[in-house]
Protein 1
Amino acid sequence: MAVRRRLISVCLLWLFALPVAAGPYVAGGAQWKPYAYEDDNGHLLGVSVDIARRVMQLANLDVTFVTYPVNRLQSMLQKGEIDMNYADARIWNSPEEQQHYVFSRPYSIVNEHLYFLIDHPARGQSIQQLNNLTIGMVRGYTYWALDPAIANHRLSRLETSQDDALIKLLQSRRVDAIAMVDDIFDALVASNHLNPAQFHQGAKLSEAPLVFKLQPQYASWLPQINRAIEKLRSSGELDSIRRHYLPTK
């Protein structure tokens, strides 16, 4: 009987010593085609989504992918309701946010510019030269290059919730220019069958390396995430995924 009790005690101790399976963790992002968007069947896909799924698979992390409007996504991250953002950039974060969160190595790079109609008189001006203009942008996005001009009231902003609404604002001349990631602009022009010759790419706002932004308690994940990114880079799979979604210029 004593031997049996000892065996039961040993088994219980062994069970309690086993690692507890965690997850699925929640990886959030905003919808910005072609990086993260839903198809007609409601399936989430895109450059960042496909890359993130492969990275998490190689890093052996059980992750559920979701999308939210930018403001809600940021609020949920601040409250700890989301474990990571799978398509962020360090330079899109304030100094305080850069200190709080942890960031992976880059897996892609996006460029952001102002876009004007081809006949706008300010289309060739630098940001420092722009004056008395209204810039359209998605609500919740931050463009640090424009902040000084906005703070000095040389520029004003008109915000909307979706990228495609910005194109319509620009075409109707309700804004002087729009701030947008180049790949998103190209995708919107193509999907709406617009003539690209009616637009002009203006001043550059940023060159942003895309990364995974994690809550600080998950800093220990970074080595395995970074290894997965480098494995996909060296195998050519990162480039293959990008080419699948991004138009060839």
Protein 2
Amino acid sequence: MVLIALLLAGCERNDPDIVRAEHYDSFWLWAGVTPSDALRRAQTVYLLDGERLARGDGRYEPRRPGIPRLPATDVWLVVRTDTMDWPAGAVDDLSVRADRWAKGGSRMVGVQLDFDARIRHLDHYAAFLANVRKRLPRRYRLSITGLMDWSANGDPKALAALAGTLDEVVIQTYQGRSTIPGYERYFDRLRGFPIAFKVGLVEGGQWIEPAGLAANPKFKGYVVFLTAKR
């Protein structure tokens, strides 16, 4: 049994379809996850700063202790949210937090909102993001995470509205620690996607690049979601 386990582990290490952090240079890092060695050569990192959730009455809940200092890496401040009912001044507070990171020594690029908007709510989400963009200083770019479903099947008008507001969308191809089965068929319908996008992969998940993805002019690379080691 021990021999079988070792053989299986060896197969997993050598499986070219497994997402390994050391093969990439852009990462999401959530609070509570120990940074991997791959972060030492990261070109871009998306760092969760806090959450604004409906169950907390929309109050901002910081999740990252201290201020990061990453002078040689492009840094995005990430806010996880499940509500578009943000109180007055919330975006202003967000820019203040980004400014603190910049003053603390990080090379700030922008702000990313991690929100699972459903297809039927894309028009409302576009209006919400337009207001965020209006309030967010132009020195910061605006990014969001996106679901494969609406990224491929969303209303063209709503997507066009998003294209006029956002700098990028990072499309999530996973749920939990696993890659969503059948992801290839979603990317078949992304050829006319109007927004610059990256593809979010989960560390340890399986991934085979769909045909034609690299040739898509809107495709800007990968971001790997780092996971806590079990």
Protein 3
Amino acid sequence: MILRAGLVQLRSGRDMARNLADAAGLIRQAAGQGAALVATPEMTNILEPDRPRLRGLAKLQSEDGSVACYSALAAELGIWLSIGSLALMGDGGTLINRSLLFDPAGRLRAHYDKIHLFDVDLPTGESLRESHAYAGGSRAVVLDAAGCRLGLTICYDVRFPGLYRQLAQAGAEVIAVPSAFTVPTGEAHWHVLLRARAIETGSFILAAAQAGRHESGRETYGHSLAVAPWGEVLAEAGQDPCAVVVDLDLAQVTAARRRIPALAHDRPFSLENLKR
């Protein structure tokens, strides 16, 4: 089976309504090119470093207007729509970084809350503390969607291969990695990490990304990627907002896993931690 997928690359700002309009336009563009599954990046609804302002803007999922708009858009276009993530308010009053998947009837079929939160002091002087604002998830998600088994992850998750291995062992053939990578880490690690996750799992990787200089002054790396199970880069965006469409031959998943059947070769072991 051939799955035509679309990657929407954004430059989300601080205005949620404008971000929604920008994303919707590029989703329509990808669907117009025949994409049956369209994926957007992390923080599709807003990229806002001012945490108090973000808390004032974030809504519960049931009250967030963009959720209803994306549901209606998926139904209108007849596509599977993976909203990479939205900044939403959780039930406990803490922000959540949540991915939402809508089916071609506009029904919400799954959600995934980012498990691994990015806390770091960068050489550029930028300090990121996701755990100070967001509650981390604790549940991995894989489901049938668009004729494949689809696994959901978000950005920093890509540095934790155990998550991807479990998704693949649960049958995931395509794994979404919506992201907002910084430029220094993107230049050093983006392609390597995504290709490694594809090769290790024998899965297609769809990584829609934020790109360019945002209103807040933050810069993100862009280069949205589609990677094949054998590690080849099938499609790559640049550093500007755009929609990229790519055909995924799902038979390649079976072929790659037969050639390197590592997913079936786990063995128990103990760790001997020798002292110096």
Protein 4
Amino acid sequence: MKDIFGKALLDYHKGNYTEDPVTETNISEEDVLPLPHLFRSYEEMPPLEQLALQNASGKVLDVGCGAGSHSLFLEEKGMDVMAIDISEGAVQVTQERGVKNVLHTPLLELNDETFDTILLLMNGTGIFETVTKVSTYLQHLKTLLKPNGQILVDSSDLKYMYDTTEEGGIWVPADRYYGELEFMMSYKGEQTQPFDWLYLDEHLFEKLASESGFQFEILARGEHYDYLARLIVAEYSHS
């Protein structure tokens, strides 16, 4: 897949900022992704992200690091951080911004490392792609956790995107879970192929986490159906 996201990050980082990438999904109109937002300081981050960073401890893995803002903040606090992303441009930007340990790799190909805290932020469930793949990702994440380690992940319940029935329910697709989206991104005349991106409501996420051997806890809820969750391997949760 073309690294349109990385190209946009590099343009902004190198002072060639002239426009923002545009995202589109199969259930929503085009939406602008403001590049300055990806280079924000801790003070500019939403409360759920700030809370996640406050709760990070020990050796940290920042999954889908983007421009590296979360990793940078934690490193400046003296923490040991590894940042990973599938975008080569994102990895380059994160390195150039000063994060020491950055890898260009998909999460499922990261092995032989363990962490006290794994961060999946800015709709961290997105990388799970579809509901059927969640257990694959959670089982792999489990192999990357130290004993008593934690996963801090945020997501949103997309029910607000759908029409409601007179009874207060929502009209959802018959053929898939309503948080399974197809995303496309375009930037400076180029466009990605559609890719799967998952938003999980907290009840389904708790069920899937439990089935994969995790204890699931909501740390906070945002103002717009969003939430921050902590996952701890169940066998360690009582020790």
